[in-house]
Amino acid sequence: MPRPPFLRHSNSGIIQTFHYEIKPKISYLPSIPVSQYPLLNIFTHSTRRNEEQLNQIHAHMITSGHLHNPTLTSKLVASFALKTVPGSTSVARRIADQIDGLDTYSWNTIIRGYLEGNDPEEAILVYNHMRRKGLKVDTYTLVCAIKACELRPVILEGKQIHGQIFKMGFGLEVIVQTALLKLFGLFDEDLVVQQIFDEMPHRDLVMWNALVAAYARGNCPYKVREVSYDMVRSNVKPNGVTAVSILSSCSSLRALREGKAVHGYVTRNLIEFDVFVYNALIDVYSKCGSIQDAFQVFQLMPVRNVVSWTSLINGYSDNYCPNEALGLFKQMEAENIRPDEITVLGVVCMCTKLRSFELGEWIDQYVAKTGLVKESPAIANALMDMHAKCGNIMKSCQIFDGMKEKTIASWTTMIQGLAMHGHGFSALVRFCQMQREGFKPDGIFFLSLLSACSHAGLVDEGRRYFSSMEADYHITPWMEHYGCMVDILCRAGLLDEAFEFVQNMPIKPDMIVWRTLLRACQTQGNISLANQVMKMNHLCDSGPKKSEDYVLLSNLFASNAEWDNVKKLRKEMKIRGVTKQYPGSSFIEVD
Fold first, then answer.
1. pLDDT digits (tens, 9 = 90+) for 355-391
2. What is the DSSP secondary structure assignment for residue 2, as one 8-state letter?
3. The whole model's pTM is what?
4. HSE of 78 in the Cβ direction (CA atoms, 13 Å)?
5. Deepest in the core among 48, 184, 368, 503, taking most CB within 10 A?
């Protein structure tokens, strides 16, 4: 999805990145008396003319010989370049290529036209053409070229433009350097970002905000706090844009105290909050577990957008308040605010957590009514996952088969759902179908596929797919893949092979792998292998911290009549205060 040209938000709608909005001023145009060129009257309100009228003007200029007049052609090029009709900017480019002596303004409008048409590659090509022809470049040209690198996104060409800026003498232009700072911030080039900032002798509020936003977007919350302190010490007063970036870093750190401090600062120093500051406050309070404070901020908002509602709904969901989340979603509907894709995804994920069949059916009907399931593969994937975890695998298959556009995530979700319900052979059939349709599996997909083999007891298939990861798809197995393979062998009763597999792993097995093997030894009564593993002291050396590790070891020692070791483990549990934090539980849904 193309980003808006002068304002960018993160997926949560929280981070607001501001940069200068620069448009060609009328002063850039040559001052020409209309009496000298009557044809200029034709271009009055030319941006309102349709494509056919512009083509007629173009034809008239060709037949009358006015096309080679740079002054008139500049107006024609600008009229074509700034039209929203597809292909009109390319027409402007072809006209410009035929005329010598066009001014910088004309070429800038072509670059701007390509940017507004979401064609940054062509915008960069036009900029390079200007450089090769030795045409004059101004600050607006450079800012647009940097914006094109941002939209592609390509860092190599951005670095080339960075070098050209200094050669052309624009190294001290705040507008250009701010655009560069923002570009390198998008690519997490923190050292370059800081260097650009440090080399500027004069820094305005916008440049400070760009630096803070770059660190916030790059997930460097401690640097955000450090820069914000430097900003205040430099007698630069933060504004709402600064506050949004700082609050975003507080959310990442789950720093409730700092978030409240920022809240107090903006309350005392800002004349009025905008919706972005309110949304950032809701986000930080929700992620820090202070959901009541988030609700109070929401109540104080004079104007709410869809991000405001979504942030609070997700906050309720993350803080295990499903009833409040559903109530807020229904209130949102009652106020005729149409939820977007992220809102619906949050509600679907909440229903997935609750494992409620009835709620699942309700949200499924709502999404079908709004038509979002056809528009968004992400929502379709979330609905598939929800129905599978709520026990309705048939509904998941129906949604999957009805999808017009499938992604690798769709196939992964489908196979994971089939594996969860023990339909291993069906999962393998889907995998063959996926290969026929030309999709290439990734590491996450293979986790679902190996899980399907494990649940269905398909040992040979599991071995084959595990081997094909590196041989056929050049994917290096993760620890989780090795764990799945151990689980496949253990479920099939092949404990000796599983033990040999673990010993030959190229990476050091983690506690989960050893736990899987020992639990299988306990379940299948293979005490000798369990003793062999325990004598190697793998689980104990790993420093078990979870109660299940202590219980597993205690049961194994007890089955071998090693009561001294059982007593030692229980004493260690008592000293460390290890308790079972989440007792086993189950629930049923009553009609």
1. 878 888 888 888 888 877 677 889 999 999 999 998 8
2. P
3. 0.70
4. 24
5. 184
